[in-house]
Amino acid sequence: MDEQTRNILDILDDDARTSPEEIATLTGMTADEVSRKIEQLEKAKIIRKYKTIIDWDLAGDHYVYAIIQLKISLERKLGYQAIAERLYKFPEVRSVRLLSGEHDIAMTVRGNSMKQVAFFVAEKIATQEQVQSTSTHFVLKTYKEDGLILDEPEQVKKLVVSP
Amino acid sequence: MRTQCKPSQFIANSMQKVPASGIRKFFDLVSDSEDVITLGVGEPDYVTPWHIREACIHSIEHGETSYTSNYGLLELREELSKHYTRRHNVYYEPETEILVTTGVSEGLDLAIRAIVNPGDEVIVVQPSYVAYVPSIIFAGGVPVTLGARPENDFKITADEIKASITNKTKAVIINYPNNPTGATMDRSDLEAIADVIVEHDILMISDEVYERLTYEGTHTCFSSLEGMRDRTILLNGFSKAYAMTGFRMAYALAPKEIIDAMMLIHQYTMLCAPITAQVGAIEALRNGEEEVEKMAREYNRRRKLIVSGLNNIGLDCFNPRGAFYAFPSISSTGLSADEFAERLLTEYKVVTIPGNIFGDTGEGFLRCAYAASREDIKEALERIGNFVDGL
């Protein structure tokens, strides 16, 4: 990756709303160059989407999250991809990952209540033919999400003048 | 009744030769102000990376609270030795040629006291860090200040150094990347200086604490130049690169005989650097590379932000290639550096440091540290702009 691409990705990774003009100032490129580069990165699907991290709890929507671990029995001709596709098409499923180790797949499920999530898993997930077993862990508190610490940030007291 | 005394009568004469740091005045001016934005700090605005802090906490929990070797933990010196071989292709023997110090400030004091006889001259290239001149005076030496010229982007030349050398000259102190100007030196600039050092048979004290914050070109370690290893006391530390200012962790690299002499002072004054900080330093060297590069990339962005901002305001700012300072000229405003900085602080609540504090050739310039958040830099630029417009 060239230095300018890394710079643009770093800046947008930290704040997706940084304008091309500001990125231009920070990198020494022109705003047009930045816009063109971002367009290329979008086309190449290196930049997939611009998202907002929302504290839904604070907003008053008290979603319930659970991490579901699955053991999968693979059938002839059907790899993990096939089961993953079946799973990720449910809107309740927020993430799906193939794992090494004891379990094969981990996914995050979001619902409005524990009951709703539990029934979703029992009815839609556990009943899939390739799913051998499920193990559901409800999330009690999220401390860090996608690199962002959700607790109050550290306050560092430094002198205002130093040599 | 016993006779009264004036405590001042006990103070050594040499203290009167040392002026108090000009920065102190700004500290007092600012202490009770609110809504102040500071570009006045010579330290990273980052907290020390967590893996380093965690290593320190772990060591305390496991009872690592004792003295260490006077030289510092051997493990740390071995890491430092490897680090210099890897990065600069210059080898220092961990057992005898590396001394772990409590900040570069201590290393500087030891270096000067170890080599200066009363009356010896030490050339100090300015603008530069405020401790060099006082340290020489404390040691009974004679500081000979030499101003790097703005026309030459604050790089000192071999000819300028040569012209300041007398038969009493013992050493030259340089600091690149430079505090307060952000100037760096190219290898060829340093090679020419190395020739002068050999020709006059003197020593170089090279303070390279901003080494890792070099944004254009590559940093050349002075002792890595041919023939310079035995003529250099290299000072460096963890404060700037790893955001570890409060740990006071630094080191000196020099030939055995010089380290021996520095060690004599160190063992009777400091004994050893704090063990917890040394543990942090080992962790920093082993696993800190990614964080260093990440912080440097962000400083580089802020550098571009502040330099273009200052130039847009009309404060002519040369391109600082290292450290985290911009050093704009304020001569177009007709104010002295002191007046500018003081009025900017009292009227617009932005802290900067007048350049003359760092040496005569810094007059007419302002040190603006960009080790501050982008939001703060933008707000400061806005206020500086308003101040300049209103003049």
Automatic annotation (TrEMBL), chain A:
<dbReference type="InterPro" id="IPR011008">
    <property type="entry name" value="Dimeric_a/b-barrel"/>
</dbReference>
<dbReference type="InterPro" id="IPR019887">
    <property type="entry name" value="Tscrpt_reg_AsnC/Lrp_C"/>
</dbReference>
<dbReference type="InterPro" id="IPR050684">
    <property type="entry name" value="HTH-Siroheme_Decarb"/>
</dbReference>
<keyword id="KW-0804">Transcription</keyword>
<keyword id="KW-0805">Transcription regulation</keyword>
<dbReference type="InterPro" id="IPR036390">
    <property type="entry name" value="WH_DNA-bd_sf"/>
</dbReference>
<feature type="domain" description="HTH asnC-type">
    <location>
        <begin position="1"/>
        <end position="81"/>
    </location>
</feature>
<dbReference type="InterPro" id="IPR019888">
    <property type="entry name" value="Tscrpt_reg_AsnC-like"/>
</dbReference>
<keyword id="KW-0238">DNA-binding</keyword>
<dbReference type="Pfam" id="PF13412">
    <property type="entry name" value="HTH_24"/>
</dbReference>
<dbReference type="Pfam" id="PF01037">
    <property type="entry name" value="AsnC_trans_reg"/>
</dbReference>
<dbReference type="InterPro" id="IPR036388">
    <property type="entry name" value="WH-like_DNA-bd_sf"/>
</dbReference>
<dbReference type="GO" id="GO:0043565">
    <property type="term" value="F:sequence-specific DNA binding"/>
</dbReference>
<dbReference type="InterPro" id="IPR000485">
    <property type="entry name" value="AsnC-type_HTH_dom"/>
</dbReference>
<protein>
    <submittedName>
        <fullName>DNA-binding Lrp family transcriptional regulator</fullName>
    </submittedName>
</protein>
TrEMBL record, chain B:
<dbReference type="InterPro" id="IPR015422">
    <property type="entry name" value="PyrdxlP-dep_Trfase_small"/>
</dbReference>
<dbReference type="GO" id="GO:0006520">
    <property type="term" value="P:amino acid metabolic process"/>
</dbReference>
<dbReference type="GO" id="GO:0008483">
    <property type="term" value="F:transaminase activity"/>
</dbReference>
<keyword id="KW-0808">Transferase</keyword>
<dbReference type="InterPro" id="IPR050596">
    <property type="entry name" value="AspAT/PAT-like"/>
</dbReference>
<keyword id="KW-0032">Aminotransferase</keyword>
<dbReference type="GO" id="GO:0030170">
    <property type="term" value="F:pyridoxal phosphate binding"/>
</dbReference>
<protein>
    <recommendedName>
        <fullName>Aminotransferase</fullName>
        <ecNumber>2.6.1.-</ecNumber>
    </recommendedName>
</protein>
<dbReference type="InterPro" id="IPR004838">
    <property type="entry name" value="NHTrfase_class1_PyrdxlP-BS"/>
</dbReference>
<dbReference type="InterPro" id="IPR015424">
    <property type="entry name" value="PyrdxlP-dep_Trfase"/>
</dbReference>
<dbReference type="InterPro" id="IPR004839">
    <property type="entry name" value="Aminotransferase_I/II_large"/>
</dbReference>
<comment type="subunit">
    <text>Homodimer.</text>
</comment>
<keyword id="KW-0663">Pyridoxal phosphate</keyword>
<dbReference type="InterPro" id="IPR015421">
    <property type="entry name" value="PyrdxlP-dep_Trfase_major"/>
</dbReference>
<comment type="similarity">
    <text>Belongs to the class-I pyridoxal-phosphate-dependent aminotransferase family.</text>
</comment>
<feature type="domain" description="Aminotransferase class I/classII large">
    <location>
        <begin position="35"/>
        <end position="384"/>
    </location>
</feature>
<dbReference type="Pfam" id="PF00155">
    <property type="entry name" value="Aminotran_1_2"/>
</dbReference>
